[in-house]
């Protein structure tokens, strides 16, 4: 945030028009450039705030549109040697910048080689100064431009330091050294820009998934229309093999859809009338008629990308630590360099030239870029890699937390179980008729969103039961629901609820145990405080649940736990079948929170996996909340720390593995860059390191950590 503007400039607050623009900034590769930009922009009249995202090369500016325009901002950015364009504009010839930089670097390399050849030739070696000078000029042009804007912002960035080092080398007559240093620096910076591009591209590639046009049926004819011009509710036709341009609902046709781009699922999913389809997924063999339900910027894919971009712009704790360290490291090393140049010659009569040279080496080493860049590159690679596999991680902090998870708690219904329930049997109590039981239960459940409710309503429909209206419906989370049906008070729910209402009898208890023993969920139904029946509901476990749980154990998760609001007997049967370490049954939503907190006390960091029905508080209470089936649910996508786009439990061990790998990767990167810096600091002071060695070490470290970070794109 920029503060301290002159208040006198602020016009009448009513006339202020707040605007926000997001610029892409070419050339903003390191934290130092952000400082430069802030310095240049903060004096613009009407500016309100700035926030920069280095990896996304994005600058978010809020301003008073009455006094400041996008164009003014763009010009101001141009003055720093960087280039800005509005995010939704086409970048104009963005290649030219890096193409001319490459050309200059190549020219510098040729001149450098020529210099060394001249030295070998049987002519006066002073002729070599010419090619060396040419190498410095060509290789240093870009650096010099950047250095000037940095110096204007009173920032000692790498370009300034390099320029000082090169000028110093020339001053003591080390022309070949100066030329080598500047060439290597130009080359390394180019390579670094390239590898940053790859990290950036990993996210942008997600966006390229959607086609630009859609085939729309308008007034009986089909026409190709730009996706942006398609309206909500219009009918689009998606031919076999085509990608879906927008989210929608199938209204005609049958096909199999490859949803891998969004959910990471490898098998195609059957789609027919009524099913939801997502932009970016790929149609199989059948043509589908689709009613558009979401415009381009609201599609599931667009939201995923938006969330990933927001996620990567957030600072993870490790990143904040590194940046704090860098802020004192650089001035520290520069102070050391000044001392090395001044103290030995002045105080001990040592030769000035040799110690000055050592000081120059230290200047090169003082740049913290390798250190500062390593963490965000690792995080972006991990986030992008995860997104490709249908796992949405909402920020570096969640990666760090997930890397430390010691126990995992699963919700049962809808998470470990498929949540596609089926009525398996109906038992009558107190002489009621099964049709009567179903009539009461279905009327009430038609108002509920719980998967159990859906199963009962579906069953009633197929059984031909007419579904009456229910009034005064109230959901009792973790227990059941109540309402008034045909003037009578109906209650539907579990044993705990009937206990609380004092409706249980020994007979009911015995019948319940029988139903639960079969692994079914027993749903009690009462009408006017008289229990009338028990509906047994069964639910298949997810195919991969057992494997996922076993894998977690093998990955060193100490405790895998099942938490459920369901009956103890049903829970036990399922817990045995799945091989969880422990289970807790008959929990209310708040009991699930307590169970999560208990796990944290016993084992440390906890991840909670749920579907958002009756377990949202527990998801929030856990260190990492993981939501299932986010492709279909906005709420899960927005609130979870990690969202699985598909209902694929094996993605959980993957996400935890990736998180650990990321934490390890970042730590390795920090260690390597600090160790290299340390070693070269010592060698530099001792006079054992040359300038070009320092450049190679510095840039080598940057490239090494970036390459290491990019490996996370491929964790499986
Ligand atoms: P889980 O923790 O297994 O995901 P929930 O917390 O969603 O289950 O529900 C706990 C229990 O509460 C269910 O097993 C069921 O017995 C009862 N219940 C909740 N909602 C309903 C409902 N709408 N109809 C019938 N029973 C319900
Ligand atoms: Mg549930």
In short:
The chain is of the alpha+beta class. The strands form five sheets. Strands 14-26-25-24-15-22-23 form a seven-stranded mixed β-sheet, with helices on both faces. A six-stranded antiparallel β-sheet has the order 6-5-7-13-8-11, with no helix packed on it. It has a six-stranded antiparallel β-sheet with strand order 16-21-20-19-18-17, with helices on both faces. The chain is elongated and about 115 Å long.
Task: Give keywords.
Alpha-Beta Plaits, 716 residues, binds magnesium ion, 4 domains, single chain, binds adenosine-5'-diphosphate, Calcium-transporting ATPase, cytoplasmic transduction domain A, seven-stranded mixed beta sheet
